[in-house]
């Protein structure tokens, strides 16, 4: 009887392994020749991501995929993963969070459905929070580097170069970051035959930053009216530099307000404990 159970169990494991291999072989190969490299963590999860993305992509609506693709573009991840792969990461995050919570409940001998549901919600929305953080970080890097690139563009235009040559000089000498990548796309679009105004408008749509929208509008207005590009760029550069100083000043003024909570919760109680300990010990010994 025991031998029969072992044989059945072995056959079940073999059948399960063969089924998993056949299911995974149906997934098409992932060509990442022109894609951005994956992080070490994503490399480990990528086979599962491809598997889930292949089998759930048919059940996702086109509107949802377009919204996710737009968010990936704003976060700079559109050349790393597709919308289907991003949704697969959300599913994997949910399963991992639920499994971890269930294991902890088993170790504590207290399985709670509420904890499992909360962990499922946390795992499902964690990639969304991460994506929003990446978008804010990327937009912050673009705003920070914009005055430097405007200075390079202004000097190049005033030296006699056209906009394509000025962009090439700015990209060659400017700091690395997402703004350099976006200007490289603008150069590529202009060389492909797209108009200068449309190339810059496409960049503004990809970035969704107010400062870049203002720059694109000023360049389009200068092109229509025949105004000097060098003068327009110098005004934009000075304005962006003033705004950067104002943002730094605003953050400096907000720092004392943000420090109130950690002071009250963490620092003041410890300080009072240190001051009150010798006084309390003195009273105890006097009694």
From TrEMBL:
Type II secretion system protein GspF domain span: 150-275
Compartments reported by the entry: Cell membrane
Stated name of the protein: Type II secretion system F family protein
Segments traversing the membrane: 86-109, 115-134, 259-281
Species, as recorded: Shewanella vaxholmensis
Lineage: Bacteria, Pseudomonadati, Pseudomonadota, Gammaproteobacteria, Alteromonadales
Keyword Membrane listed: yes
Main location: membrane
Keyword match Transmembrane helix: yes
């Amino acid at each position: 009887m025991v031998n029969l159970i072992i044989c059945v169990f072995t056959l079940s494991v073999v059948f399960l392994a063969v089924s998993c291999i056949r299911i995974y072989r149906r997934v098409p190969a992932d060509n990442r020749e022109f894609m951005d490299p994956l992080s070490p963590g994503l490399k480990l999860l990528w086979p599962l991501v491809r598997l889930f993305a292949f089998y759930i992509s048919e059940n996702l609506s086109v509107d949802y995929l377009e919204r996710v693709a737009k968010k990936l573009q704003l976060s700079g991840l559109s050349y790393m993963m597709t919308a289907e792969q991003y949704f697969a990461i959300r599913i994997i995050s949910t399963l991992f969070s639920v499994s971890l919570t269930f294991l902890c409940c088993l170790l504590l001998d207290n399985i709670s459905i509420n904890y499992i549901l909360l962990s499922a919600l946390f795992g499902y929305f964690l990639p969304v929070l991460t994506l929003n953080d990446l978008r804010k970080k990327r937009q912050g890097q673009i705003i920070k580097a914009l005055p430097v690139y405007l200075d390079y563009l202004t000097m190049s235009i005033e030296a006699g170069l056209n906009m394509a040559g000025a962009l090439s000089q700015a990209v060659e000498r400017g700091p690395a970051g997402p703004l350099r990548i976006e200007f490289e796309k603008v150069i590529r679009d202009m060389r492909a035959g797209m108009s200068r105004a449309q190339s810059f408008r496409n960049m503004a749509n990809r970035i969704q930053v107010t400062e870049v929208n203002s720059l694109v509008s000023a360049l389009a207005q200068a092109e229509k009216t025949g105004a000097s590009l060098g003068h327009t760029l110098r005004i934009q550069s000075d304005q962006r530099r003033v705004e950067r100083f104002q943002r730094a000043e605003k953050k400096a003024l907000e720092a004392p307000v943000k420090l109130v909570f950690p002071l009250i919760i963490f620092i003041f109680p410890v300080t009072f404990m240190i001051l009150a300990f010798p006084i309390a010990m003195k009273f105890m010994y006097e009694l």
